[in-house]
Amino acid sequence: MIIPVILSGGSGTRLWPLSRAMRPKQLLSMVSNHTMIQDTVTRLSGISELAEPIIVCNEEHRFTIAEQMREINVNPSAIILEPFGRNTAPAVAISALESQKSENDPVLLVLPADHVIGNINAFHAAVNKGYLAALDDKLVTFGIVPDAPETGYGYIKSGPELSNEGVFSVDRFVEKPDTVTAEKYISEGDFFWNSGMFMFKASVYLKELSSHNKDMYNSSIESLSTAAVDMDFIRLNKEVFEKCPSDSIDYAVMEKTSSAAVIPVEMEWNDIGSWSALWAVGDSDVDGNVTHGDVVLEDTKGSYIHADSRLVTTVGLNDHVVVETADAVLVAHRDKAQNVKHIVEKLKASNRDEAIIHNKAYRPWGAYECIDYDSRFQVKRITVNVGARLSLQLHHHRAEHWIIVQGTARVTCGDKEFLMSENESTYIPLGEKHRLENTGKIPLELIEVQTGSYLGEDDIVRFDDVYGREDKVN
């Protein structure tokens, strides 16, 4: 049995302002109608001996990921919540331990949630080879046949071919090279990009981890054994997990084991690590431009232009990236796209919300978007999913006015409960317990006008919440 382990812990800072900590690139639709994590799961369709996936993610993303899996009719066998990142090696170890609860010794297919693969048939063929090698107790990694002297990836040098056709021993892993070294690797023909995808038996990985990093192995066991089951989630204990060493699979196991194997594969792979990478995989016009949204170009070539909320126009621009969102705009030369992460670092240092959250915030019940604000008022557009309800709550510093734009709402206000439909409104006084629920068949849309001395999201007291939230976030 093959159990996919989907790693969804990255923040994607080089794809700011679209990708942010609260909604990173793997949760966005970057190259298709599906989000990247949805694409990662759906491209597995057709592989035999496949079980439901285990997903490892940041606890802040739990409801979004659960909803995105529901949208594609996937029911993960487990969604493991990390209170903070400890890199890939502990995440896979905990997944391996969890997988053994339902299967005696499954083969794990470890996949980052933010990769693009154009040739699905080649990917499936490589997985089938990897499965056979994993059954032979090999720790398999997939090496991408390079088509350019890329300096942004680590490389794997292959050794002699093993008994399985197309499976090679690993001579060594090497760090990201400079251009001259990368060109040398390409010319030698036995170096491949390190894809970060792996395949091995759960028992073999755990045995190797125990041998090479006993502290991480023991911490992983303790982290899972002390985890709490919260609805559909496995919530790792914060104090225990904090003690776990942080390291990647490569450093913790693959570079130290004598059982590593590599399968070279050409599958139109890209890890979408920057805006220039997204430009490279996009459909370009005759001038080499890739566009998204409402864009009008004049004398512009080789550029990536993304309009998220309004018209974006360019004149006389070559080899640039322009990305517009409701609250931020990025302009960068394509060759400098990797350095966008430095902007994010500066925003974080200044405690700017734009580094963390979008103007549109997603919640387990739907989403809200701020459309206007000042010191004593704020206007939000709120969407409540069919059948969803907000927590029973009150605010100490603000009152709220609700105007229904679409759908049907059941409103609780104090000791009253009543239905509202389109073009109806109500008032929620300061300090009054209240709740909003979508009882209709279509998404509920409303405009909320908040007034008061303090309008922060932490002004909330919960009395009942169907999502089991204890954090002070609406």
Notes on the structure:
By secondary structure, the chain is α/β, with parallel strands linked by helices. It has three domains: 2-270, Spore Coat Polysaccharide Biosynthesis Protein SpsA, Chain A; 275-344, no CATH class; 360-464, Jelly Rolls, CATH 2.60.120.10. It is built from eleven helices and 30 strands. The strands form seven sheets. It has a six-stranded antiparallel β-sheet with strand order 20-21-22-29-24-27, with no helix packed on it. A five-stranded mixed beta barrel has the order 6-9-7-8-12. A four-stranded mixed β-sheet has the order 14-16-18-19, covered by helices on one side. Helix 3 crosses helix 6 (202-212), helix 3 crosses helix 7 (214-225) and helix 6 crosses helix 7 (214-225). The longest helix is centred in the first third of the chain and has 16 residues, at 120-135. The two termini are 41 Å apart. The mean pLDDT is 94.
Helix content class:
10-25%
Number of domains: 3
The largest sheet is: 6 strands, antiparallel
* Count of separate DSSP helical elements: 11
Model regions low in confidence, pLDDT < 50 over at least 5 residues? none
General shape: globular
Backbone CA Rg = 24 Å
**CATH class categorisation of the largest domain:** Alpha Beta
